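Design a sequence for this backbone.
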């Protein structure tokens, strides 16, 4: 039987918008902690907070966006998210203290969170049902490319340009995202109050409960991943491996580029466990290698394992969350997964930043490898209780 068409113009366009959205996120994420410490006199914990507060803003936006996106409409919500993301970028030019930095990062995170929920929801509607795992795997490569180019570009530009020049580049990149939104055609959505929670203030109006278990597991992995995006620059300086560190996200992304399309097809044909357990183990090995790195080769090898593990989990975990939800709550399932994973990434930098003076960067990464092992156990319990049930069974909310 002939496969349904996956590579449509709108699929490519929503992936490009997502790429620009995440490119700005990663470009600024990798330089923000160093900027806060060097220019604003922040401590490692406070600098980590400057990274994490962005994710908190994204978390808030994702929870709210997932509950209203069908009511407002995909296209209108996409423009709202991009407008907040774009306009708040200009506030960086006025930044002169840590409190104002936190405020700007929070607002910027709101724009990012709202935009990424809409793109993730739209792509789930565009992809043919029978190719959902494969399609989300390919779509997620737009995030992967951003996670490679953004940090590498940030680490290069910060040595040659001022912070404010980098902000100007970020604004220009978002202009392309806005232009893409005008071109994108999104599926029409019919809002029917009957499909919504009976109480507008119910938790289920903001979270899809069937997606929560896999999302909480993702939050643990996100907590571990936050140690990388927050402190990679400082860690490589400490090890005198700055040159190798500048290629870290290249190796990370190559691993995802090679593994995600295969993992997506296996998820559709061989089931969740065939993909998820190796992903957990790969992430754990990567963090262990990173904590013990003494040379550039070992650092880049850790990037390969981390990319294959965490990158595979993100796309596969999102697919599992979507499968677990009723059709009319796909947007809410998407926002629930992204928001809870973001919560882990958001709270990580401040907590781990406080641990750095006590156990050092190496101790942090080795501890996160232990946390990944704990997440494997939780997934085993989740698998026994949830994955053996029929995803098609509707749960009243």
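Sequence:
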């Amino acid at each position: 039987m002939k496969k349904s068409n996956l590579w449509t113009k709108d699929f490519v366009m929503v992936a490009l918008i997502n790429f620009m959205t995440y490119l700005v996120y990663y470009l600024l994420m990798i330089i923000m902690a160093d900027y806060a410490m060097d220019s604003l006199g922040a401590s490692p914990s406070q600098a980590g907070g400057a990274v994490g507060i962005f994710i908190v803003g994204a978390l808030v936006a994702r929870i709210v966006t997932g509950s209203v996106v069908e009511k407002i409409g995909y296209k209108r919500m996409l423009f709202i998210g991009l407008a907040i993301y774009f306009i708040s970028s200009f506030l960086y030019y006025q930044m002169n203290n840590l409190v104002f930095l936190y405020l700007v990062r929070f607002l910027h995170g709101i724009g990012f969170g709202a935009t990424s929920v809409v793109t993730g929801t739209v792509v789930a509607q565009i992809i043919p049902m029978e190719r959902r795992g494969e399609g989300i795997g390919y779509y997620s490569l737009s995030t992967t490319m951003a996670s490679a180019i953004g940090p590498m570009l940030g680490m290069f530009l910060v040595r040659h340009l001022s912070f404010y020049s980098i902000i100007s580049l970020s604004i220009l990149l978002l202009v392309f995202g806005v232009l893409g939104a005008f071109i994108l055609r999104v599926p029409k959505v019919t809002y029917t109050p009957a499909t919504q929670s009976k109480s507008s203030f119910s938790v289920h109006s903001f979270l899809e409960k069937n997606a929560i278990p896999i999302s909480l597991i993702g939050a643990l992995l996100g907590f571990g991943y936050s140690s990388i995006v927050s402190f990679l620059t400082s860690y490589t300086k400490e090890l005198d491996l700055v040159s190798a560190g500048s290629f870290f996200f290249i190796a990370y992304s190559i691993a995802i580029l090679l593994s995600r399309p295969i993992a997506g097809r296996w998820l559709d044909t061989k089931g969740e466990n065939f993909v998820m357990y190796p992903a957990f183990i790969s992430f754990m090995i990567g963090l262990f290698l990173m904590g013990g790195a003494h040379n550039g080769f070992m650092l880049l090898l850790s990037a390969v394992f981390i990319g294959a593990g965490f990158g595979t989990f993100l796309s596969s975990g999102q697919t599992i969350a979507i499968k677990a939800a009723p059709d009319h709550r796909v947007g809410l399932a998407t926002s629930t997964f992204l928001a809870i994973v973001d919560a882990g990434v958001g709270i990580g930098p401040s907590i781990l930043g406080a641990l750095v003076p006590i156990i050092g960067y190496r101790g942090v990464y080795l501890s996160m490898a232990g946390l990944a092992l704990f997440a494997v156990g939780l997934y085993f319990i989740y698998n026994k209780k949830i994955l053996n049930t029929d995803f098609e069974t509707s749960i009243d909310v």
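The chain has a mean pLDDT of 82.
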